[in-house]
Amino acid sequence: MSRHRRQLTSALDALDHAFASEKPFPVAGCTHCYDEQDLAALSGPLHLIPDDLVSSVATKTPGHWDDFPRLYRRLAPRIVRPVVTGRFHVDEELVASRLVRAGWADWDAPLADALRDVWSAWWRATLHTHPAPVPARRTLGFVTVVTDSLRPWLDAWTATRTPAADAHLADLVDDVMFEFGIIDLHMGFHDEYHATAELLDWLLTDVRDRVEDPRLADPYLLRHHRAAGRRPGTGAPPVGRAEANPPTDRPIS
Q: In Å, what is the CA distance from 155 to each residue of 13, 53, 159, 183, 253?
């Protein structure tokens, strides 16, 4: 196991430890979708909740539960570990949206900090492993939505000059340049984050020398880039919500 994978495993173990203080509570919710046995299981010991029930809760809309934030907080370790290890058959960006709706960033500091450590360790491990359990494009979508911030994750990618990071970069370009989808690119299950300005500027400036794709020189794309504009005197895109709310005070590269 690589150093970065070991760091991710340690962060996930620390997450389990931090959330061990979350005690069971009587769970009430939609009795059309969940029977008494399901609700009883959700009200019991965390490790005894069936995997399929955890994945179901991870995707259901908050209105299914009397106390959605508390339930999602308690299940967070059971949801996050399989997501970041690529063993959860649930859309990663949907889970990110649910975590935001549950208000994860405002949970008690030990819980929120443990999650931030996982996001950072996951991104480092992804950039140093190709192929990764979860492709970089999907991981980037998750961490961007869950932190409402894109540029810090891109900066970490810029600083990671490894064959794995460059292979992920080629995959990303192939994905976002399909039919010039980058011109109106949103991240998040509900398209919460409009990523075009930041991502396009990054591709055409910070990492342009690492990408061999003729589509990045297409006049149509370059015109769009010029029209979007950049902050005077910098190579960065206009200030937006991503820069106003960085994902963590911990280094991510």
A: 27, 37, 6, 21, 8
